[in-house]
Amino acid sequence: MTSASQSAPPDSESARVAALAQEFPDADDRTLLVVASTLDGATLTADQSEGLARLADALKSDGNARVLGPFPSDDGRAAVVQVTAAVGGDEAKADHALVDDVRATVAGHGVDGVALQVTGGPAFGVDVASASHGADFTLLLVTIGIVAVLLILTYRSPVLWLVPLLVVAFADQAASKATTALGAALGLSFDTTTAGVSSTGRRSHSTSCRRSCARAARMPR
Predict the structure, then answer these.
(1) 3-state secondary structure of 161
(2) Cα 41–chain centre separation
(3) How does pLDDT run across 24-56, given as a tens digit for each residue?
(4) Is 0.70 topped by the overall pTM?
(5) % helix / strand / coil in the chain, to the nearest 5?
Protein backbone atom coordinates (compact mmCIF):
# COMPACT_ATOMS: atom_id res chain seq x y z
CA MET A 1 0.00 0.00 0.00
CA THR A 2 1.37 3.38 -0.95
CA SER A 3 2.03 6.16 1.55
CA ALA A 4 -0.83 8.17 0.06
CA SER A 5 -3.24 5.32 0.79
CA GLN A 6 -1.85 4.89 4.29
CA SER A 7 -2.59 8.54 5.03
CA ALA A 8 -6.26 8.07 4.13
CA PRO A 9 -8.87 6.73 6.59
CA PRO A 10 -9.11 2.92 6.50
CA ASP A 11 -12.72 3.04 5.29
CA SER A 12 -12.06 5.55 2.49
CA GLU A 13 -12.37 4.50 -1.15
CA SER A 14 -8.67 4.96 -1.87
CA ALA A 15 -7.67 2.79 1.11
CA ARG A 16 -10.15 0.06 0.14
CA VAL A 17 -8.96 0.09 -3.47
CA ALA A 18 -5.33 -0.12 -2.36
CA ALA A 19 -6.19 -3.11 -0.14
CA LEU A 20 -8.01 -4.85 -3.00
CA ALA A 21 -5.12 -4.18 -5.36
CA GLN A 22 -2.83 -6.17 -3.06
CA GLU A 23 -4.93 -9.27 -3.80
CA PHE A 24 -4.10 -9.21 -7.51
CA PRO A 25 -1.25 -11.34 -8.87
CA ASP A 26 2.05 -9.46 -9.12
CA ALA A 27 0.67 -6.72 -6.85
CA ASP A 28 4.17 -6.13 -5.45
CA ASP A 29 5.77 -5.70 -8.87
CA ARG A 30 7.45 -2.45 -9.77
CA THR A 31 8.27 -1.46 -13.34
CA LEU A 32 11.07 0.83 -14.43
CA LEU A 33 11.91 2.04 -17.92
CA VAL A 34 15.42 2.64 -19.17
CA VAL A 35 15.07 5.18 -21.97
CA ALA A 36 17.94 5.37 -24.44
CA SER A 37 18.26 8.18 -26.98
CA THR A 38 21.10 9.20 -29.28
CA LEU A 39 22.95 12.36 -28.33
CA ASP A 40 23.17 13.63 -31.91
CA GLY A 41 19.57 12.84 -32.84
CA ALA A 42 20.61 10.24 -35.39
CA THR A 43 19.30 6.69 -35.57
CA LEU A 44 20.81 4.07 -33.33
CA THR A 45 23.74 2.30 -34.92
CA ALA A 46 24.27 -1.46 -34.85
CA ASP A 47 26.99 -1.07 -32.20
CA GLN A 48 24.72 1.07 -30.04
CA SER A 49 21.91 -1.46 -30.35
CA GLU A 50 24.31 -4.21 -29.32
CA GLY A 51 25.38 -2.08 -26.35
CA LEU A 52 21.75 -1.74 -25.26
CA ALA A 53 21.32 -5.50 -25.58
CA ARG A 54 24.33 -6.00 -23.30
CA LEU A 55 22.81 -3.52 -20.85
CA ALA A 56 19.59 -5.56 -20.83
CA ASP A 57 21.59 -8.72 -20.13
CA ALA A 58 23.36 -6.97 -17.25
CA LEU A 59 20.03 -5.92 -15.78
CA LYS A 60 18.82 -9.51 -15.98
CA SER A 61 21.85 -10.80 -14.11
CA ASP A 62 21.44 -8.37 -11.19
CA GLY A 63 18.63 -10.30 -9.50
CA ASN A 64 15.14 -11.62 -10.03
CA ALA A 65 14.15 -8.77 -12.34
CA ARG A 66 12.27 -9.50 -15.54
CA VAL A 67 13.77 -7.52 -18.39
CA LEU A 68 12.17 -6.93 -21.76
CA GLY A 69 13.71 -5.17 -24.72
CA PRO A 70 15.37 -3.10 -25.92
CA PHE A 71 12.43 -1.93 -28.02
CA PRO A 72 13.42 0.66 -30.65
CA SER A 73 11.21 3.61 -31.50
CA ASP A 74 9.58 3.96 -34.90
CA ASP A 75 12.20 6.45 -36.07
CA GLY A 76 15.08 4.39 -34.66
CA ARG A 77 16.49 7.27 -32.63
CA ALA A 78 15.53 5.87 -29.22
CA ALA A 79 14.86 2.60 -27.45
CA VAL A 80 13.29 1.42 -24.21
CA VAL A 81 14.23 -1.39 -21.85
CA GLN A 82 11.56 -2.49 -19.38
CA VAL A 83 12.63 -3.77 -15.96
CA THR A 84 10.07 -5.37 -13.64
CA ALA A 85 10.89 -6.64 -10.16
CA ALA A 86 8.95 -7.61 -7.05
CA VAL A 87 9.49 -5.63 -3.85
CA GLY A 88 8.50 -6.40 -0.28
CA GLY A 89 8.56 -4.95 3.20
CA ASP A 90 8.79 -1.18 3.45
CA GLU A 91 7.73 -0.13 -0.04
CA ALA A 92 9.42 3.26 0.06
CA LYS A 93 12.79 1.74 1.00
CA ALA A 94 12.32 -1.15 -1.44
CA ASP A 95 11.51 1.22 -4.30
CA HIS A 96 14.54 3.34 -3.44
CA ALA A 97 16.80 0.28 -3.41
CA LEU A 98 15.40 -0.97 -6.73
CA VAL A 99 15.87 2.39 -8.43
CA ASP A 100 19.39 2.74 -7.04
CA ASP A 101 20.35 -0.76 -8.24
CA VAL A 102 19.00 -0.20 -11.74
CA ARG A 103 20.62 3.21 -12.05
CA ALA A 104 23.94 1.84 -10.80
CA THR A 105 23.81 -0.92 -13.42
CA VAL A 106 22.91 1.57 -16.15
CA ALA A 107 25.76 3.86 -15.08
CA GLY A 108 28.19 0.95 -15.24
CA HIS A 109 27.13 -0.12 -18.74
CA GLY A 110 27.09 3.11 -20.69
CA VAL A 111 26.76 3.14 -24.46
CA ASP A 112 28.84 5.58 -26.53
CA GLY A 113 26.75 8.35 -28.04
CA VAL A 114 23.62 7.32 -26.15
CA ALA A 115 21.94 9.04 -23.20
CA LEU A 116 20.48 6.57 -20.71
CA GLN A 117 17.80 7.62 -18.24
CA VAL A 118 15.76 5.60 -15.74
CA THR A 119 12.12 6.55 -15.27
CA GLY A 120 8.81 4.98 -14.31
CA GLY A 121 6.53 5.22 -11.28
CA PRO A 122 9.07 4.13 -8.61
CA ALA A 123 11.81 6.34 -10.09
CA PHE A 124 9.48 9.34 -10.15
CA GLY A 125 8.54 8.77 -6.50
CA VAL A 126 12.18 8.42 -5.45
CA ASP A 127 13.18 11.59 -7.31
CA VAL A 128 10.35 13.61 -5.76
CA ALA A 129 11.25 12.37 -2.28
CA SER A 130 14.93 13.16 -2.86
CA ALA A 131 14.10 16.65 -4.13
CA SER A 132 12.10 17.49 -0.99
CA HIS A 133 14.52 15.79 1.43
CA GLY A 134 15.66 18.34 3.99
CA ALA A 135 13.49 21.07 2.49
CA ASP A 136 11.44 21.49 5.68
CA PHE A 137 14.57 21.94 7.78
CA THR A 138 15.93 24.52 5.34
CA LEU A 139 12.59 26.32 5.32
CA LEU A 140 12.60 26.31 9.12
CA LEU A 141 16.06 27.90 9.28
CA VAL A 142 15.16 30.56 6.72
CA THR A 143 11.90 31.34 8.53
CA ILE A 144 13.65 31.64 11.90
CA GLY A 145 16.28 33.93 10.40
CA ILE A 146 13.74 36.27 8.78
CA VAL A 147 11.54 36.37 11.89
CA ALA A 148 14.55 37.00 14.13
CA VAL A 149 15.63 39.99 12.04
CA LEU A 150 12.10 41.42 12.08
CA LEU A 151 11.81 40.97 15.83
CA ILE A 152 15.17 42.60 16.51
CA LEU A 153 14.19 45.57 14.36
CA THR A 154 10.79 45.77 16.08
CA TYR A 155 11.79 45.37 19.73
CA ARG A 156 15.31 46.86 19.46
CA SER A 157 16.50 44.56 22.20
CA PRO A 158 19.26 41.90 22.16
CA VAL A 159 17.19 39.58 24.37
CA LEU A 160 13.50 40.42 24.12
CA TRP A 161 13.19 39.09 20.55
CA LEU A 162 13.85 35.56 21.86
CA VAL A 163 10.59 35.50 23.84
CA PRO A 164 8.22 35.36 20.81
CA LEU A 165 10.43 32.76 19.13
CA LEU A 166 10.37 30.53 22.21
CA VAL A 167 6.59 30.90 22.45
CA VAL A 168 6.20 29.95 18.78
CA ALA A 169 8.55 26.97 19.20
CA PHE A 170 6.52 25.73 22.16
CA ALA A 171 3.24 26.25 20.28
CA ASP A 172 4.63 24.46 17.21
CA GLN A 173 5.64 21.39 19.22
CA ALA A 174 2.33 21.38 21.10
CA ALA A 175 0.39 21.58 17.83
CA SER A 176 2.51 18.79 16.36
CA LYS A 177 1.81 16.53 19.36
CA ALA A 178 -1.90 17.37 19.20
CA THR A 179 -2.00 16.61 15.47
CA THR A 180 -0.32 13.25 16.02
CA ALA A 181 -2.73 12.34 18.82
CA LEU A 182 -5.73 13.43 16.77
CA GLY A 183 -4.54 11.41 13.78
CA ALA A 184 -4.10 8.32 15.96
CA ALA A 185 -7.58 8.76 17.42
CA LEU A 186 -9.18 9.14 13.98
CA GLY A 187 -7.13 6.40 12.31
CA LEU A 188 -5.12 8.81 10.15
CA SER A 189 -1.38 8.88 9.50
CA PHE A 190 0.18 12.15 8.42
CA ASP A 191 3.29 12.01 6.27
CA THR A 192 6.22 14.42 6.45
CA THR A 193 4.82 16.60 3.67
CA THR A 194 1.56 17.17 5.54
CA ALA A 195 3.41 17.89 8.76
CA GLY A 196 5.76 20.30 7.02
CA VAL A 197 2.95 22.25 5.35
CA SER A 198 1.03 22.40 8.64
CA SER A 199 4.09 23.58 10.52
CA THR A 200 4.89 26.21 7.89
CA GLY A 201 1.31 27.47 8.06
CA ARG A 202 1.52 27.83 11.83
CA ARG A 203 4.79 29.78 11.56
CA SER A 204 3.39 32.07 8.88
CA HIS A 205 0.28 32.75 10.96
CA SER A 206 2.39 33.46 14.04
CA THR A 207 4.62 35.85 12.05
CA SER A 208 1.56 37.73 10.76
CA CYS A 209 0.17 38.04 14.28
CA ARG A 210 3.47 39.40 15.62
CA ARG A 211 3.66 41.96 12.82
CA SER A 212 0.12 43.12 13.54
CA CYS A 213 0.84 43.44 17.24
CA ALA A 214 4.05 45.36 16.56
CA ARG A 215 2.25 47.79 14.26
CA ALA A 216 -0.49 48.26 16.81
CA ALA A 217 2.06 48.98 19.53
CA ARG A 218 3.69 51.70 17.39
CA MET A 219 0.41 53.45 16.56
CA PRO A 220 -0.10 56.81 18.31
CA ARG A 221 -2.67 56.77 21.05
Answers:
(1) coil
(2) 32
(3) 766 678 889 999 999 998 999 999 999 999 999
(4) no
(5) 60, 15, 25
